[in-house]
Task: inverse folding
């Protein structure tokens, strides 16, 4: 029996692999990297369910998104052996932005890249020794300041991921869009300085929108993003894509695409602060103005509601959960002989939007609302679109939706990234001004009173 085991909520199958499909694809690349590091250090890694965790000495919990916080809480919060555990729990992953919801159920939180120290840390924990690192939070002493770990270079080893092997080629993004946790969490490292393609491009290439026309091998489905329904919003968030660029790119792709037809999956961010119905109407008008004179163009638009992600200037902005993106799912934006554009049916609900906001801005006072979302059976019987309204009758949602002043302490105050805090705050003030919502500065006397 391995002393170290990765937690799998569905439990391992007879071969010891995942029943959870989410563990067997590149979305969990960080977990694969950790396993590879440990095995290269001679540490055997198994897999366990919440009920069998007590059979091991160290449990590793992977968080690929904020929603994994709910998966974790549902899986272990009511398991008696977890509360009285003798095993140690190490949590980490790109989805671990806020440690407060997990603080009583884990022993260590690892923030950022950890391949340089994870083996030494696990060995120390197995031997019952103390281990310190600037990117490691030991929860027995409470929440403390940590620095998000950065990679010293591209991971040099090929990983035996499923369904294919994976070699890291890029970290970070050449842009620094002000809403993007990835940009602010990861320093840019790449083996290809000319073209950006997403690291998960094994299912479809991912190319920056303004570099689509530079790619000479466009075929199949290509993923890209414009992230904003109006030029005003895009430019405010440092997304340098104009309306003219969108129109010209779509029309030229119709001519130069190598395949039989153009197929883009276009990621959008909706519900930005100050976004209006007019912004969305203007976007529809812009798309319909495109005259594609070559191959047929198909664009699937996937909308993700805005998140005030930790470490970003946008972390200080207010959030609106009032617009129902699910209501417009599957509707056509354009339907012409050579151009079809529609919203994908997988757009999330207002409830899923709220769930992530609660995790991102959770504090010690958030335990009750988290418990209700995870375990209240009456809530499960209500439609997803109605749940935020019901929850708001029992809980104050303002801490998760409100604007934060740039001189306030954010719920994720303990995180520091590679961009200095003061620089992030200055960028946040400019972002608010560019959106038409400048804040008043707080003087020293007001700070003291607060």
Result:
């Amino acid at each position: 029996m391995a002393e170290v085991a990765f937690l799998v909520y569905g439990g391992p199958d007879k071969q010891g692999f995942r029943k959870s499909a989410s563990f067997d694809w590149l979305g969990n690349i960080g977990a694969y990297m950790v396993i590879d590091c440990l095995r290269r250090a001679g540490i055997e890694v198994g897999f366990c369910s919440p009920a069998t965790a007590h059979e091991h000495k160290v449990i590793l919990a992977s968080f690929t998104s904020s929603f994994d916080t709910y998966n974790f809480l549902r899986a272990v919060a009511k398991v008696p052996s977890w509360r009285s555990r003798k095993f140690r729990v190490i949590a980490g992953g790109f989805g671990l932005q806020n440690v407060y919801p997990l603080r009583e159920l884990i022993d260590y939180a690892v923030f950022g890249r950890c391949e340089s120290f994870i083996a030494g840390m696990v060995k120390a924990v197995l031997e019952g020794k103390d281990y310190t690192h600037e990117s490691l939070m030991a929860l027995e002493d409470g929440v403390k300041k940590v620095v998000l770990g950065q990679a010293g270079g591209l991971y040099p080893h090929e990983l035996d991921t499923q369904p294919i092997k994976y070699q890291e080629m890029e970290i970070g993004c050449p842009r620094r869009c002000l809403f993007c946790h990835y940009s602010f969490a990861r320093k840019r490292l790449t083996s290809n300085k000319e073209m950006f393609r997403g690291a998960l491009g094994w299912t479809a290439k991912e190319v920056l929108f303004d570099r689509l026309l530079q790619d000479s091998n466009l075929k199949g489905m290509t993923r890209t993003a414009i992230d904003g329904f109006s030029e005003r919003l895009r430019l405010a968030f440092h997304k340098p894509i104009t309306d003219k660029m969108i129109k010209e790119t779509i029309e030229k792709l119709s001519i130069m695409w190598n395949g039989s037809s153009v197929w883009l999956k276009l990621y959008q961010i909706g519900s930005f602060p100050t976004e209006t119905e007019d912004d969305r109407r203007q976007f529809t008008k812009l798309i319909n103005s495109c005259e594609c004179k070559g191959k047929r163009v198909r664009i699937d638009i996937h909308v993700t509601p805005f998140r005030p992600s930790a470490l970003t200037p946008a972390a200080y902005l207010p959030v609106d959960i009032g617009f129902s993106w699910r209501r417009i799912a599957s509707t056509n934006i354009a339907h012409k002989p050579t151009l079809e554009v529609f919203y994908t049916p997988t757009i999330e609900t207002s409830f899923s939007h709220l769930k992530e906001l609660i995790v991102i801005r959770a504090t010690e006072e958030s335990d009750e609302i988290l418990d209700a979302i995870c375990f209240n059976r009456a809530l499960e019987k209500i439609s997803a679109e109605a749940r935020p309204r019901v929850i708001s009758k029992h809980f104050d949602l303002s801490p998760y939706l409100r604007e934060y002043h740039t001189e306030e302490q954010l719920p994720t105050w303990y995180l520091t990234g590679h961009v200095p805090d003061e620089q992030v705050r200055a960028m946040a003030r400019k972002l608010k001004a560019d959106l038409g919502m400048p804040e008043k500065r707080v003087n020293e006397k007001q700070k003291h009173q607060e």
